[in-house]
Amino acid sequence: MTSDTDRRLLLQLARDAIVAHVTGAAAPATGVCPHANEPGAAFVTLHRHGELRGCIGHIEADEPLGRVIARGAVAAASADPRFPPVGASELPELEIELSLLGPLEPVMTPDDIEVGRDGLVVELGRHRGLLLPQVAPEWGWDRVMFLAQTCHKAGLPRDAWKQGATVWKFEAEVFGER
After folding, report:
1. Backbone region of residue 175 per phi and psi (left: phi > 0; alpha: psi in -120 to 50; beta: other values)
2. Under a CB-based contact definition with an 8 Å cutoff, are residues 99 and 72 in contact?
3. pLDDT (tens digit, 9 = 90+) per residue, 153-171?
4. What is the chain written as a DSSP string?
5. What per-residue confidence (pLDDT) applies to 115?
């Protein structure tokens, strides 16, 4: 579990990275706390007026967490294909949420999944989709619908989890500015 101080520092790092990217300022240093220097996997989610505004991250814990968060924040603000890049006028209205991902564990049956605790990754060939643990409860999905929606996000048929796709689950520590 990340301390409240580290959470605040990591959220500030994400915000500073977005502001620097949007305004052309120098990128912030990423080693804001000891936790930021450890290998980590994370997703950065942006909301504006309660609506999704961008979400991008990194699944493997193979780089320092601070670098993953800074890069993910910039990508969520500028490279999420669902949205135009964040403009300077939107910066004060953005709310940042971080999801620090735990290790991936294989899923053999839907019974292996706990909605609200687990996030999912589905992969088949070059297709891969990920949904964070908070998504299923937000939409009222059960385990099977969560699997189907993760397959759909991967660009696969909704029943691909029954047809040979590999499924993993992960836990995440989720915290945000609100």
Report:
1. beta
2. no
3. 999 999 999 999 999 999 9
4. ---HHHHHHHHHHHHHHHHHHHHTPPPPPS-SSGGGGSB-EEEEEEEETTEEEEEEEE-S--SBHHHHHHHHHHHHHHT-TTSPPPPGGGGGGEEEEEEEE---EE--SGGG--TTTEEEEEEETTEEEEE-TTHHHHHT--HHHHHHHHHHHTTS-TTGGGTT-EEEEEEEEEEE--
5. 97
* Tens digits of residue pLDDT in 107-125: 999 999 999 999 999 999 9
Domains in the chain (CATH in brackets) are 4-101 (3.30.700.20), 105-171 (3.30.1490.150)
Place of tokens 């991250």: 57
Place of tokens 């520092």: 9
Q: Which two tokens stand for residue 125?
A: 């060939």
What is the separation of C-alpha 22 from the centre of its chain, rounded to a whole number of angstroms?
Answer: 20
At 50-66, the pLDDT tens digits run: 999 999 999 999 999 99
